[in-house]
Amino acid sequence: MLPVVAVFALLVCITRSSTGLPFEQKGFWDFGKEFDVQDLLMMMKDEEDGSAFGEVDPQEQPGCPFGCQCSLRVVQCSDQNLYEIPRDIPHDTRLLDLQGNKITEIRENDFKGLYQLYALVLVNNMISRVHPRAFLPLGRMQKLYLSHNHLPAVPRNLPASLVELRIHDNRIKKVAAGTFSALGTMNCIEMGRNPLQNSGLEPGAFTGLKLNFLRISEAKLTGIPRDLPENLRELHLDQNQIQAIELVDVSQYRDLFRLGLSHNRIRHIEHGSLAYVPNLRELHLDNNRLNKVPSGLAQMKYVQVVYLHSNNISEVGVNDFCPTGFGMKKTFYNGISLFDNPISYWEVQPATFRCVADRNAVHFGNHKK
Ligand SMILES: *[C@@H]1O[C@H](CO)[C@@H](O)[C@H](O)[C@H]1NC(C)=O
Questions:
Q1: Are residues 245 and 149 in the same domain?
Q2: 216 occurs within a structural domain
Q3: Which residues does UniProt assign to the signal peptide (predicted)?
Q4: Ligand 1 mutation pick, 312, 316, 341, 343, max ligand atoms within 8 A of CB
């Protein structure tokens, strides 16, 4: 029996799964729960482990801004109807939570002196302007959460220490060349639900990044963007208008583990494309316009999960999923979805799924979930 336990605990940005497929694996973004201050505190503690976190500096106990609660270097000012970033935030603050306010602008000196800040939470505000020097003092900041604001662009001069940026649901139409150029330790960017077209991603937009995780779902992409960071392990481009996958689209991403392309308009996958991503574990192609199983799947040694439901696939060949030679596949499938396709299911030979871990792993009935 081959081990079928997926070992995906690689990334910082993982959260919980949300759909109800029986074999759904953990590790996908949960839109409802973008982050949790408690999780953040745990992460902070883990990463600090044994440092001064939690200690009270006896020399200086500056006041807590009005409307906020301050303890253990965490300043909580969420849902306070604030129109601007409060002044007098203690200089030793590690976590600043300003979510759910009415902040429209980040000014030049708003974060002055906060050189110990680890995480800044600004989600659910009305921020449309960020002063280009506003983030300069934040030399230790690792996590910046700007989702659900009105930003027209990724802010400039992000701190080089940044590891995770979430800027989901803003108004970004363009990512200029060099936007991320100084951010060599960045691991994860979530920038879905922005009105981004392929033409809005300037050549060089992602230069300098060594990302593990990139999500540009719910945008207006018509193709897989070119020149994304080469060492990407997860790429999520669901809910765009992508029509095809061509060799050049995937030829640079040998390390890709997960590729999410659900809810696009893909009709065509160029023959040989999958050979460029030999390490793929999960491929999500459900809710597209495919009329056959992508070629090359059977040659992929590690692929475990393939979503193909809600396409226009009318036939499944006996060698579409599994190799013909014994021992060619290193990990068996533990999830294949084919429901909601015009397949004559009784014509699919049982041997088609000979490299599947167990029969419950094939979701096959001709019905919607
Ligand atoms: C589905 O495939 C059939 C041929 O197999 C084709 O006639 C039909 O137009 C396709 N439907 C869509 C929505 O692409």
A1: no
A2: no
A3: 1-20
A4: 312
